[in-house]
């Protein structure tokens, strides 16, 4: 099947059995039936997201490049969204990165403040 084939969300939903399992990751449609038994993370998790958008589940695990290569081999087409379809899922990475940069900023601020106090103490000491 050519990778340019388009599927609607309703069509993807119809493929939710172990042998005929479709899932959507980053708006692309994958047919994972042949891989279910080989998945190192087990068949259960794949069945849970069968016929659905699995972008979050797939990215949350932090799959390796090898996993992404396998994924490309399972590609059957792309998703054609209609008005009533669920919105595209965003990767959680962006949010957590913003969080950690704020933490780093706070730590730097505290460090500079502490260094100033120590410098002031040292200056007083030598007077
Ligand atoms: C067709 C899509 C998927 C492919 C090709 C795939 C492939 C793989 C591969 C190759 C691994 C071994 C570790 C690695 O290389 O990263 C792995 C591990 C894992 N996968 Fe997936 N995966 C897919 C979808 C999912 C989904 C939707 C979930 C849902 C939660 C999931 C959960 C896991 C877990 C929990 C592990 C860790 C297993 C362990 O280390 O014990 N995977 N997957």
Automatic annotation (TrEMBL):
Record carries keyword Iron-sulfur: no
Biased composition, class Low complexity, residue ranges: 91-102
PROSITE patterns, A to Z: CYTOCHROME_B5_1, CYTOCHROME_B5_2
Gene Ontology annotations for the cellular component aspect, listed alphabetically: endoplasmic reticulum membrane
UniProt name for this protein: Similar to Probable cytochrome b5 acc. no. Q9P5L0
Bilayer disposition of the protein: Single-pass membrane protein
Source species of the chain: Pyronema omphalodes (strain CBS 100304) (Pyronema confluens)
GO molecular function, one term: heme binding
Domain of life: Eukaryota
Family: Belongs to the cytochrome b5 family.
TM spans (from-to): 107-126
The Cytochrome b5 heme-binding domain, residue ranges: 4-80
Swiss-Prot/TrEMBL keywords: Electron transport, Endoplasmic reticulum, Heme, Iron, Membrane, Metal-binding, Microsome, Transmembrane, Transmembrane helix, Transport
InterPro entries assigned to the protein according to its UniProt record, in alphabetical order: Cyt_B5-like_heme/steroid-bd (IPR001199), Cyt_B5-like_heme/steroid_sf (IPR036400), Cyt_B5_heme-BS (IPR018506), Cytochrome_b5 (IPR050668)
Compartmental location: Endoplasmic reticulum membrane; Microsome membrane
GO biological process: one example: sterol biosynthetic process
Region annotation (Disordered) ranges: 81-102
Species classification: Eukaryota, Fungi, Dikarya, Ascomycota, Pezizomycotina
